[in-house]
Amino acid sequence: MGHMRLNDVVAEIIGDVMAGHAVNKREAAVKRWDDIDADGQYLAGIDGVVTRIDQRARSLKLKAEKSAAPAQAALPFHLPAAVAMDIDGTSLVATRQLSRAGFERAIEIRQLQIANDQRALREWRNALRQADQFWADNPDWSFGRCLDAILTHSVQTTPCDRVPT
After folding, report:
1. φ, ψ at 161 (rounded to 5°)
2. Count of CB atoms within 10 A of residue 135's CB?
3. N or C: which end of the chain has fewer CB within 10 A?
4. 85 with 102: CB under 8 angstroms?
5. Beta-bridge partner residues of 83
6. Residues 102 and 133 in one domain
7. In this structure, are 46 and 14 located in the same domain?
8. pLDDT of residue 85
9. What's the pLDDT score for residue 161?
10. Does residue 33 form part of some domain?
11. Is 89 left (phi over 0), alpha (psi -120 to 50) or beta?
């Protein structure tokens, strides 16, 4: 067992990414596991279980109840078997157990998640449009180099603070 805090190990791994190294998260976690102190390993284990619960809940789909009818009817929609009842996704409830108000809350949360995803997607597209003005002439540049050019370009085209005369 190691002597480093979990956050410090994570910060070092992210530091490698920020330094330009491609990092396989799973391999990095395995490689650095023994550097993490007992409390950190406990927290990481809990986080790992939570992640697996989340993944499994998303992968399971709502199915029709088994009936005595010889041919099983399919539902006319596809929903997850469990849904998050808060924006963080920490509280899961079986879809079958939702009341009408709970069902509406699940829809609200999904709408918020979609809105957040759409905002993030707009930012990505905006960043691509900004970088494209430099990638057009320099297709081998990294996005970071385009960022530097965007910043330099915006500083050069921004009007200076002027004192009115």
Report:
1. -70, 125
2. 17
3. C
4. yes
5. 93
6. yes
7. yes
8. 87
9. 46
10. yes
11. left
| Beta strand ranges found along 27-114 (DSSP E) | 82-84, 92-94
Question: Consecutive sets of 10 residues in the chain, 165 residues long: mean pLDDT of each?
Answer: 91 89 89 94 90 82 62 80 83 91 94 95 97 96 96 71 46
- The domain tally of the chain equals 2
Looking at residue 162, its pLDDT comes to: 43
Note whether 44 and 52 are within 8 A (CB). no
Give this prediction's pTM.
0.68
Residue 65 is assigned to a structural domain of this protein: no
User: DSSP string spanning 73-124?
Assistant: PPPSS--BSEEESSTTS--EEEGGG--HHHHHHHHHHHHHHHHHHHHHHHHH
Distance CA(66)–CA(115), nearest Å, equals 36
User: Would residue 164 count as lying in a domain?
Assistant: no
**Domain region containing 26:** 1-59
What residues does 93 pair with on adjacent strands?
A: 83
Q: What pLDDT sits at residue 39?
A: 95
The answer to whether 128 and 143 are in contact (CB under 8 A) is: no
